[in-house]
Structure formats: C-alpha cells, structure tokens
Amino acid sequence: MTADRPRPGTVVPSTADAVSASVACARAVGLPGDDPQVIAEGYSVRVRLLPAPVVTRVVTLGRQLRPGPRPWLEREVSVARFLATSGVPIVPAWEDPGPHTAEGLEVSLWQWADHDAGEVPAARFGAMLGVLHEALSVYPHDLPTLVGPVTDISTALEVSSHPTLHRAASVLLPLAMSWPRRPLHGDAHTGNVLLTPGGPLWTDFEDVCVGPVEWDLSSMTVTEEALAAYPGSIDRARLADCRDLRRLQVLASLLVGGYDDAPLLESLVTHLDRRTRD
User: Is residue 2 part of a domain?
Assistant: First the structure.
C-alpha cells in the first residue's frame, strides 16, 4: 500500500530538525542541551535534554494529519497542569512547559520520569481510567469534540479518494457528533501509561477532548478485564461504534501518514466495508 498524496503545503520536519529545535529551546529557557537523546519517534519526536531531567516534544509526522500543532500542545499542557494539581498520577509538565517556538517549530517541555518497559496490568488500567475521568469531569475549560479522530479523518478525506474511507466516514462522523460529551484523555491506551518506580503515570494528552467514555475504552489494548475494572457504566453498542471510529482513524493515518502496512490496511478495509454494507 502506498500512501495518498500529502496535504498541500504541509512541511514535515525531520528528526534532526526536532533535535535542533529542542536544543535551541533548551538554551533559550536556560536548560542545558549538551547531550540531547532521541527517546521516541513517531507522530512526534521526544528528546531527553541530558543532563537536565527534561524531555521535549516536537510534532513531526503528525503534521501530515494535523498541520497546526500549537493548539494541541496548548491543550495538553493545560490539562496536564490541572490534573497534577488534582492529584492524578501523570507525567508532569516542566515548570515552563510552553509550548515554545524554536527554529520555527513548537516545542513543549516535560519532566523526565524513569520508567520500565512493559504494560500496566489490565485491571489497573481500567481503575486508573475511572479515576482520570472523575478528575477530568470538573476541568474548567472548553475542549473540542473527539478532536483526534475527527481531525485525522477529515484531513484524509481532503487528500485521499479511497472509497472505504469516504463510505465509512459518511456513517461514522455524523454518528460521533451525536454521542454524549464529557472530558476524556482522547487517546487512552496501555502504551500511554508509564510504569515508574512510584507507580503507573498517565502521559500523552495531546488528543484531550470531549466525547463519550466509550471512546477512551475503544483501543484494542483495552481488554475485557480492563472494561470490567472500569467503575462507570459502559454502553456496549456505543463501544463497538467507537472501535469502528478508531479503525477509521487508523485507516486515515495509513492513507495519509506515510505508513506502509498492507495486512493492517486490508483488515481495516474488510471490517469497515462490512459495516457500511450491513
């Protein structure tokens, strides 16, 4: 599978660009940038600013679907600060998190958290999500509706003519706009919980939004054990719809985001085509 054309005018920074911007940002705010180490690459690049206990985040590939990252980073910082004061176990923002601008790129700053590989146990994840939702229920600022999937799918619709994308979006996007709305993590899955010596910590609130609780339970990493441990009620029919919306979001990223995974593409298309035929 070859990705469709990129969104016109979108410039995707390289990992080297992200590192350079991170070092420039560090120097501007008085942090050392002598030994930058890339610790993650994907939609964003994360750079650890050794010897400081600080990590940067610079959106790179994510700009293909989300060309204006500043509002996303601003929401992430705002929600992280709110949750930290609420006692929710999260990776905290640095004292001056930004987002800053360095060498033309947006850079947010986060405290480094030592952590181990592995995943949070399923039951612990479900219970943690309940605590997170309770804290977010009183978040005092407006949030967009399901901004991650809606933006990614809408961008893909502009640049890709893939028939499954268009058919499924015509069904799922209007349905998503009819769902209940409350503050959510937006991209809740086991990979966004770090296992630290002090216990598991939530991270990556870039997709924070409002929507139904089922959206935060729709990742395929969320097992039946996790669902059983979630303290709130779950609408199983809506959960199935949310999982289809997540499938459509992944399809959008495959078509526009430059990824090549033919088996996954075939699986997504088969499932979504079955839904639109039923």
Answer: no
Which residue(s) pair with 109 in the sheet? Answer: 56
Buried b (16+ CB within 10 A) or exposed e, 95-107: eebbbbebeebbb
Q: Do you find a cis peptide bond into 99, omega within 30 degrees of 0?
A: yes
Look at the chain and report how many structural domains it folds into: 2
Termini Cα distance of the chain: 26
What pTM was estimated for this model as a whole? 0.93
Q: Which domain holds residue 66?
A: 15-111
Residue 102 lies in a domain: yes
Burial class (CB in 10 A: 0-12, 13-18, 19+), 252: buried
Q: Are residues 265 and 157 in the same domain?
A: yes
pLDDT digits (tens, 9 = 90+) for 12-70: 999 999 999 999 999 999 998 889 999 999 899 999 999 999 999 999 999 999 989 99
How long, in residues, is the chain?
278
Asked whether residue 22 falls in the same domain as residue 103, the answer is yes
